[in-house]
C-alpha cells in the first residue's frame, strides 16, 4: 500500500508589506501626532480613525496606508488580518528661506519635509467583520426588506 502524505499549510508570519512616501510638505513633528494614533491598529480601524481626523497629515497617512494594503494584496496576504506593525516619520530635506526684518536684519524660516514609512504584517486572528449569512448586497444600492406574504386566510376576518 502507498503511504499518503499530509501537508500542513503554514502561514508565513514574517511577510511584510511596505510603503514609503518621501518629501511630504509637512513637518515630521506634526505628522507624528497623526501616526501615533494608528500604530499597531488593524487596517480597518486605522482607516476609520484617520477618516475622522482633520489634520493634513491624516490625508497623507491614509493615502500611504491604501498603497501599503495594495502592496500586501500583491504579495498574497490576507487583507482581513493586516495590522500596522510599524509606522514612522523621519525628517527630509529642509527648505531654508529668509524673511527681511527691520534695520537690515533677516530671520531664517525653515520649511521642513518628511519621509513617511508604513510596514504592515499579517496577524494571527482575522480583524475583518464577519458578514451575516445572506446579507451580501451590491455596493451603493440600498434594498428594502421584503415583506412576508400573508398565509392564506391569516389576515381575513
SSE arrangement:
Blueprint: E1 16-24, H1 28-35, H2 43-51, H3 56-74, E2 82-91, E3 95-100, E4 106-111, E5 114-122
Helix pairs in contact: 1-3, 2-3
* Structural category: alpha+beta
Multimeric status of the protein: single chain
Q: Average pLDDT, to the nearest integer?
A: 84
Distance between the termini: 73 Å
> What ranges have pLDDT less than 50 throughout 5 or more consecutive residues?
6-10
For CATH, the homologous superfamily of the domain at 16-122 is named as Ribosomal protein L22/L17
CATH class of the domain at 16-122: Alpha Beta
Taken from the alpha-carbon principal axes, the silhouette is elongated
Q: What is the makeup of the main sheet?
A: 3 strands, antiparallel
What is the H/E string? EHHHEEEE
Number of strands: 5
Compute the gyration radius: what is it?
26 Å
Could you tell me the CATH topology label of the domain at 16-122. Ribosomal Protein L22, Chain A
Plain-language structure description:
The protein has about 160 residues and is α+β, with helices and mostly antiparallel strands. It has a domain of about 110 residues: Ribosomal protein L22/L17 (Ribosomal Protein L22, Chain A). The chain is about 25% helix and about 25% strand. The chain has a three-stranded antiparallel sheet with strand order 1-5-2. A two-stranded antiparallel ribbon has the order 3-4. Strand 3 and strand 4 form a beta hairpin. Helix 1 crosses helix 3 and helix 2 packs antiparallel against helix 3. The longest helix has 19 residues. The protein is elongated, with a radius of gyration of 26 Å. It starts with 15 loop residues before the first strand and ends in a 35-residue tail after the last strand. About 5% of the residues have low confidence.
Amino acid at each position: 500500500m502507498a503511504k499518503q502524505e499530509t501537508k500542513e499549510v503554514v502561514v508565513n508570519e514574517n511577510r511584510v508589506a511596505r510603503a514609503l512616501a518621501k518629501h511630504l510638505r509637512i513637518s515630521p513633528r506634526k505628522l507624528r501626532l497623526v501616526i501615533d494614533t494608528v500604530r499597531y491598529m488593524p487596517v480597518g480601524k486605522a482607516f476609520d480613525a484617520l477618516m475622522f481626523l482633520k489634520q493634513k497629515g491624516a490625508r497623507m497617512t491614509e493615502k500611504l496606508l491604501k498603497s501599503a494594503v495594495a502592496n500586501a494584496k500583491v504579495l498574497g496576504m490576507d487583507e482581513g488580518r493586516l495590522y500596522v506593525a510599524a509606522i514612522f516619520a523621519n525628517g527630509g530635506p529642509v527648505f531654508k528661506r529668509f524673511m527681511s526684518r527691520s534695520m537690515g536684519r533677516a530671520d531664517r524660516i525653515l520649511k521642513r519635509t518628511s519621509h513617511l514609512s508604513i510596514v504592515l504584517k499579517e496577524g494571527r486572528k482575522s480583524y475583518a467583520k464577519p458578514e451575516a449569512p445572506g446579507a451580501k448586497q451590491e455596493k451603493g444600492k440600498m434594498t428594502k426588506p421584503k415583506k412576508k406574504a400573508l398565509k392564506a386566510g391569516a389576515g381575513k376576518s
